[in-house]
Amino acid sequence: MSVRGTLRALPTLLRVGVSEAVAYRAEMLVWVLGTTMPFISMALWTAVARYEPVGRYDSHDFVRYFLAIFVVRQMTGAYAAWQINYEVRQGTLAMRLLRPISPLWSYAAENLGTFPLRLLLVVPLTLFSVFTLGTRSVPGTAWGWGFFLLALVGGWLITFLANVLIGSLSLYIESSNRLMDLWFAFFMICSGYLYPVELFPPLLRGLLGWLPFRYQVGLPAELMTNAHGFTEALGLLGLQWSWVALLLGLSILSWKRGLKRFAAYGG
Amino acid sequence: MFRRYLRLLKVRLRASSLLAMQYQADFLLDGLISLFWMASALVPLFVVFQSAQRQIEGWSFGESLLVIGWFTLLQGILEGAINPSLQGVVEHIRKGTLDFVLLKPADAQFLVSTENFLPWRAINLVAALIIFGYGFHLIGRGPSLLGVAISLVLLGTSVLLLYSLWILTVCAAFYVVKVDNLTYLFSSIFDAARWPAPVFRGVLAFVFTFVIPLAVMTTFPAEAMLGRLPWTALVWALLGSLLFAFFSRRVWLHSIGRYTSASS
């Protein structure tokens, strides 16, 4: 399908995504409740920092950081890998392939469709953070906001493209859900989700900078809480978008080659 | 009666192990992944206790390791013996195949609870013992015999609590249809149990003691091993878990009574 056709179809796809999210709002609420881990981490780290600060973080900084992590996690979520796995196995992917637009666009639109509902949660939480902990909870400069939004988009793209890449592997092997679990395990340790990446032992910290996980939620949350200066932030954004480009290439290649093998089991 | 159910349990355990070993590549991959998960559960602890003398709310590194050990053990039981079966119930309800289970001449709750076991999770038991050993090595003394006995009693109450909580979650599936993600919700909340309970204050402390008694499950047994669990706490844990079990059984019977099969 032509680029123009895709562009014309996108608003409708997004609208469908939003209505789907509204229709399954109870299910989405359960998902959101399942991502409350940052609050557990918050309780833990404020307890650790109650008597003396850890690194440059005192209790307030930890509250600020983990609120930012929660907000970022909500805005960078994607679940296409499970969708693709399920549809490949059930054969329903065939239905999507009949449409004159790449299924990847419809997955993206469906995943993005949950955002308006998530904003209803994220915006009040951010305002709460600003009112109770001061303006340092959000970027203080214009470039700060620009970088933060850019990092948010990059973070979502990395998450989504990793989902597509691993999901498309289900076209080669029976099921790639276990690989996704493995990715998720690494995400937990390396992304800054459970603790700021800065607190990692110095030897390993350098390694985290070269892995994609930190750029999923860690970097956007750091930029939201003003952790980096201009040049440092620019360098990190560059690394993030390099990962976006790499994953984009890999996932599209794997998807296209995999589709040739797709035989619509049972479909 | 009792012997019949014991025999039934044996048959089902054998069936699950055969099923698990059917796909050998998956079987090994499963083992590797569970090893990896256990290692990853320890990482946050090492990050917290990088400076060796640090304590969180009076818990040293060695003592916190005991809590993690209990967490690993219970996680093994949860993911090996409780989750897989009860996840199947949700599927049964949606597809309408629960009717076939109800028709069988045995208690339905027993049948759905023993449907599937993942033998690999037994590795968690080994890991927990290693973690206990290392923890006590760091503390510099062994557990008292009485403490170990009490902690074993508490293991029973913890498993009962976990199981009851799961039955309650499954009962929700009778009322709300789409609940695939309840497992995810459950295990993500259970994750909080890896930290000593005093870490949590205010609302969280209340929730984790009375609503979802995570504190009772991992912190109490660890304290018992250290020989500093008050007797009253033991009594409360026993009473509470029995009450939870009774309540969940009532709710299950009520829900199954309301169940109108998918075909009618």
UniProtKB/TrEMBL annotation, chain A:
Keywords tagged on the record: Membrane, Transmembrane, Transmembrane helix
Pfam family, one: ABC2_membrane_6
InterPro entries from the UniProt entry: ABC-2_transporter-like (IPR010390)
Transmembrane regions: 29-51, 63-84, 104-131, 143-166, 178-195, 233-253
PANTHER family membership: SLR1174 PROTEIN, SLR1174 PROTEIN-RELATED
Record-given protein name: ABC transporter permease
From TrEMBL, chain B:
Organism for this UniProt entry: Cystobacter fuscus (strain ATCC 25194 / DSM 2262 / NBRC 100088 / M29)
Protein name: Conserved membrane protein, multidrug efflux associated protein
Pfam (any one): ABC2_membrane_6
Taxonomic superkingdom: Bacteria
Residue ranges of the TM segments: 27-49, 120-140, 152-177, 197-217, 229-247
Cross-referenced PANTHER family: SLR0610 PROTEIN, SLR0610 PROTEIN-RELATED
Keywords (A to Z) from UniProt: Membrane, Transmembrane, Transmembrane helix
